[in-house]
Recover the amino acids of this structure.
C-alpha cells in the first residue's frame, strides 16, 4: 500500500479520517426601446435613468458558473432554475457525446463545459446536505474515476471547498493521474484548496481503508463513470461502488454525476454492482436511460443542468 504523503504536491494514500475537522444594438429595435418610444409618443414619463431593466420572463437563466444565487437555492429551486433544460427532449449517451464534441468544435472549450457541470453538481450537493441536515456535519466524500466524469467531481470539490465544506476528493483508478487533460487540470487545481484532501486509491484494498468511517460523511458523490459500462465492473471501481452502497445503507445521502455508475445512459440497463443514488445531476438534456424503468429506479431525483452547449450542437 502507498505510504501517506501529507506535505508534498502528490495526493495522499487512502487513509483519510472522515471524522476529523477541516484544515485550515442590434439593428432591429428592441422591445424595450419600442416601449420607450411608444411611451414618449403618448406623453408618458420616461424610465428613470439608471433603473435596472425589467426581468425578461423568457430569458434563459445564467449558466451555473455565472449564477450568483446558485448556492443559496434548494433542490426545488435548482430544478426551477434549470426548467428549460429539464423540459428539453431526452437524448442518449451517443447523442450527448456528439453534442459535446460539436460544441467544442464550435468554440466552446471543454474545460468550460466541465466547469459549469462541476459547479452545478456542487450546488446540488450543498442543497442535498442542507435538506438532510448534514451540511458541515462531516466531510463531502467525492469518488471520481479517471475520465471526464471524474473531472466534474474535481470541479465540484473546488466549489464546495469555497463554500466552507471539508472535502475528500478521491481518484479511483490504477493510474496516478486522470486520463483527460481537463480532468487532470482540475485534479491539480485541488492542491491549492486548503479544505480539500486529495487521495489516490489504485487498488481495492485502498478503497476498503478509505471506507472506514464512511457513515460520518455528509454526502457521498459518485463521479466514477458517467456513461455506464457493459459487463461486470472491475476493481478498483467495483470496490468504490460497493463502498457507496455501504454509505447509503448507513444513511448517507448519495448524489450521482451525470448517471449513477453502472447505468447505461441510453437504455437504462444496469451492470453489477450499480450505484443507487438519492439525486442525480445530469447535463444539457434529460437522458433516455434515466427515464427508463430500471435507470429511473436507481437515479433518484434527477436534475438537468445547463452547461453551455449551444442548441446547434444537437444537430448532428
Amino acid at each position: 500500500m502507498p505510504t501517506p504523503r501529507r506535505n508534498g504536491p502528490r495526493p495522499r494514500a487512502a487513509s483519510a479520517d472522515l471524522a476529523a475537522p477541516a484544515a485550515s444594438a442590434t439593428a432591429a429595435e428592441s422591445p424595450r426601446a419600442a416601449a420607450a418610444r411608444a411611451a414618449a409618443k403618448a406623453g408618458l414619463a420616461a424610465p428613470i435613468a439608471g433603473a435596472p431593466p425589467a426581468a425578461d420572463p423568457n430569458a434563459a437563466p445564467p449558466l451555473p458558473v455565472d449564477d450568483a444565487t446558485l448556492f443559496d437555492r434548494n433542490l426545488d429551486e435548482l430544478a426551477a432554475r434549470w426548467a428549460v433544460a429539464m423540459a428539453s427532449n431526452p437524448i442518449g449517451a451517443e447523442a450527448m457525446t456528439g453534442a459535446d464534441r460539436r460544441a467544442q468544435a464550435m468554440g466552446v472549450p471543454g474545460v468550460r463545459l466541465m466547469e459549469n457541470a462541476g459547479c452545478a453538481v456542487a450546488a446540488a450537493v450543498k442543497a442535498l446536505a442542507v435538506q438532510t441536515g448534514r451540511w458541515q456535519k462531516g466531510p463531502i466524500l467525492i469518488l471520481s474515476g479517471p475520465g471526464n466524469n471524474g473531472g466534474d467531481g474535481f470541479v465540484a470539490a473546488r466549489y464546495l471547498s469555497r463554500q466552507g465544506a471539508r472535502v475528500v476528493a478521491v481518484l479511483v483508478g490504477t493510474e496516478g493521474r486522470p486520463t483527460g487533460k481537463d480532468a487532470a487540470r482540475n485534479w491539480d487545481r485541488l492542491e491549492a484548496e486548503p479544505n480539500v484532501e486529495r487521495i489516490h486509491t489504485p487498488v481495492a484494498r485502498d478503497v476498503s481503508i478509505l471506507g472506514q468511517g464512511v457513515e460520518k460523511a455528509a454526502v457521498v458523490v459518485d463521479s466514477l463513470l458517467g456513461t455506464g459500462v457493459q459487463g461486470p465492473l472491475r476493481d478498483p471501481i467495483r470496490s468504490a461502488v460497493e463502498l457507496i452502497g455501504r454509505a447509503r445503507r448507513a444513511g448517507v445521502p448519495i448524489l450521482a454525476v451525470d448517471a449513477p455508475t453502472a447505468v447505461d445512459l441510453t437504455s437504462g440497463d444496469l451492470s453489477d454492482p450499480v450505484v443507487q443514488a438519492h439525486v442525480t445531476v445530469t447535463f444539457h438534456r434529460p437522458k433516455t436511460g434515466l427515464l427508463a424503468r430500471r435507470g429511473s429506479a436507481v437515479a433518484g431525483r434527477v436534475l438537468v443542468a445547463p452547461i453551455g452547449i449551444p442548441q446547434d450542437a444537437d444537430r448532428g
About this structure: The two ends are 47 Å apart (CA to CA). Residues 1-8, 22-52 have pLDDT under 50 and may be disordered. The longest strand covers residues 167-172. DSSP finds eleven helices and seven strands in the chain.
